[in-house]
Amino acid sequence: MTIHTTAIVLAAGQGKRMQSKVQKQYLLLAGKPVLYYSLKAFQDSFIDNIILVVGKGEEEYCRKEIVEKYGFSKISDIVEGGRERYHSVANGVKAISEPTDYVFVHDGARPFITTEILERALEQVMLTDACVVGMPVKDTVKISDEDGFVEMTPPRARVWQVQTPQVFSYQVIAAAYNKLIEQEQQLVEQGVFVTDDAMVVEYFEKKKVKLVEGSYQNIKITTPEDLNVAESFLR
């Protein structure tokens, strides 16, 4: 059976915590933009098609300085992101023009995605229709009450730190994001804040999402310290 896979790579973040005039996805890491590394991983993998989601007005820059410069032939479309992360994902899903079976949503600021992680995620999404990459937490986690006191201590073995890619069958993620955009105002009024794609699928499609082992090196570049750690990983 032939399956078709699409990756939506998000590179529309502002990166305010990086304290840099250059957005984090374009900062140089060992001489290449942070964004290069995740795109290269998808380019060299089984992924058939890549949709790159960038900030408003950055489409042409990315086309010349990222796509053409590094020969990313699998990138079929560069689309404008939105105000929130979920708007950017919705725009990416909307840009899928060819029939596809599975959609991999990945943060462009996570440069250390590997083919092995992608293969594990594909294996699981084919069984479950919805999975996310992550790792069990190393530290004990406390849940606080509204006053900052410990309310509970969840069993550490059951607490995961979620990463990307987050992977879904096309039907599941398309349906979930259509409902999210339609009901966005209601969610805002209810104080529901969407933080990742799994939450959208859980909330709107009532779908259980499988956790898949990623890597402790699959970090997101968010602060200057993260960039230093990333450089040490490359060395």
Task: List the SSEs and their pairings.
Layout: E1 5-11, E2 28-29, E3 32-33, H1 34-43, E4 49-54, H2 59-70, E5 75-80, H3 85-94, E6 102-107, H4 115-128, E7 130-136, E8 143-144, E9 150-152, E10 160-169, H5 170-182, H6 184-190, H7 197-205, E11 210-213, H8 224-234
Parallel strand pairs: 1-4, 1-6, 4-5, 7-11
Antiparallel strand pairs: 2-3, 6-10, 7-10, 8-9
Helix pairs in contact: 3-5, 5-7
SSE pattern: EEEHEHEHEHEEEEHHHEH
CA radius of gyration: 18 Å
Strand order of the largest sheet: 5-4-1-6-10-7-11
Counting DSSP H or I runs of 4 or more residues, the number of helices is 8
* Average pLDDT: 94
Percent range of helical residues: 25-40%
Specify the overall morphology.
Answer: globular
Uncertain residue segments: none
Strand residue content = 15-25%
The count of DSSP E runs of length 2 or more, i.e. the number of strands, is: 11
Structural class: alpha/beta
Report the biggest beta sheet as strand number plus sense, adding barrel if it closes.
7 strands, mixed
Distance between the termini: 40 Å
Detailed description of the structure:
With 235 residues, the protein is α/β, with parallel strands linked by helices. 37% of the residues lie in helices and 23% in strands. The protein contains eight helices and eleven strands. The chain has helices at residues 34-43, 59-70, 85-94, 115-128, 170-182, 184-190, 197-205, 224-234, and strands spanning 5-11, 28-29, 32-33, 49-54, 75-80, 102-107, 130-136, 143-144, 150-152, 160-169, 210-213. The strands form three sheets. Strands 5-4-1-6-10-7-11 form a seven-stranded mixed sheet, with helices on both faces. Strands 2-3 form a two-stranded antiparallel ribbon. A hairpin with a 5-residue loop joins strand 8 (143-144) and strand 9 (150-152). Helix 3 (85-94) packs across helix 5 and helix 5 (170-182) packs across helix 7 (197-205). The N and C termini lie far apart (40 Å). The model has no long low-confidence stretch (mean pLDDT 94).
